[in-house]
Automatic annotation (TrEMBL):
Name under which the protein is recorded: Uncharacterized protein
Alphabetically ordered keywords of this record: Signal
Secretion signal, residue range per the UniProt entry: 1-22
Length: 64
């Protein structure tokens, strides 16, 4: 009885798992489309020329 229950549970997971692997991106009309690429993460901190932390974007600041 236990093996029958395990087999039924695994079969239901396999059968319902196929749509879960599909791309989650849809267009305005609800059709599936290729997902846009993710933007690269910005560096969290930057250091100035003298080694102190500075805002990224100031002159001489480099990402750590």
């Amino acid at each position: 009885m236990r093996t029958l229950l395990v087999a039924a549970a695994s079969l239901s997971l396999i059968a319902s798992g196929a749509p879960a692997f599909a791309a989650p991106c849809k267009d305005a009309k609800g059709r599936f489309m290729k997902c846009p690429p993710k933007a690269p993460a910005k560096p969290a901190r930057c250091k100035s020329a003298n080694g102190k932390f500075a805002k990224c974007g100031t002159a001489g600041a480099k990402p750590v």
